[in-house]
Amino acid sequence: MKSLVTKHPWPLPLLLLLLLPLKLQGDYWDYEEYELNPELRDYLRERHQSTPTKPPTLKRIIERIIADPDRPFDGEDYCRTELLYKNLHYKLRCYPEFYILNVPFFRLQRSCTGVRVKCNNGAKFCRRSVGAMPAVRCVLERGDVAGNCDYQSTFITGYPIVTCQWDNDTKLFIPNNVLDVLPAE
User: Fold this and answer.
1) Which of 60, 102, 117, 123 has the CB geometry, 3.0–4.6 Å to 134, for a possible disulfide?
2) Inter-CA distances, 105 with 9, 50, 52, 68, Å
3) DSSP state letters, 39-77
C-alpha cells in the first residue's frame, strides 16, 4: 500500500512551503514619495486613499471658506474661477453646492458660539452666526469632474449656518464647513 505522500505528490511542496517564514510583500521603502513637497505628498495621499480623510487644518479651512481679499467679490463666473483658483473638489468631483464668505476668519469664528440650530444634511450640531455676512452661493449647473464644473453664482447677505471642530493648536472651536446661509431680513 502506498503512503499518502507518494500517492499524491502535489501536497508535499505545499507542506514544505508552510515551513518557510512568511515574507511581507511591501517591505521596500518608497523614497520617491518622501522627496516630494510635504503639502503635495499629503494631497496625493488623501486623493488616492480609500479611508476617511483627516480633518482639514486651520489654514485649509480658511482657504476653503473665506473669499480671497485680493480678488474681486463679484461677477457671474465668480464661483467657477474661485473654486478653480482654490483647487476645491472632493476627490476630483465637483461640489453640488458650496458657500464662500467675504469676511475675516475671526468674525466667522464667533459663529461657533452662536445659536444652535437644526441641521438639514445629517450633521449633529450646527450653529448660526451672530451677525449677517456677505456670501456667495455656488450651485453646480453642469459638469462632474474638477476643472469642468460650471457653477451659478448667487451673491447674498445673511446668517451662515456652520459646523465646528475643535482645533488642538488654538484650543478653540473653529468653523469647518458652511452648510447654508439664511437670508437677512
Assistant:
1) 102
2) 73, 31, 26, 11
3) HHHHHHHHHH--SPPPPPPHHHHHHHHBPPTTS-S--TT
**Cα dihedral 16/18/21/22 (nearest 10):** 130
> Hey, is 31 helix, strand or coil?
helix
The domain spans of the chain are: 56-183
Give the C-alpha separation, 178 to 162, whole Å.
Answer: 5
pLDDT at 139 over 90: yes
Class of domain 56-183: alpha beta
Per residue in 70-87, pLDDT (tens digit) is 888 888 889 888 888 888
Alpha helices by DSSP H, listed for the chain, are: 4-7, 11-19, 31-34, 38-48, 58-65, 78-86, 105-109
Pairing of β 150-167 and β 172-183? antiparallel
User: Number of C-alpha atoms within 13 angstroms, CB side, residue 67?
Assistant: 22
Distance CA 137, CA 78 (A): 10
pLDDT of residue 104: 92
pLDDT at 185 over 80: no
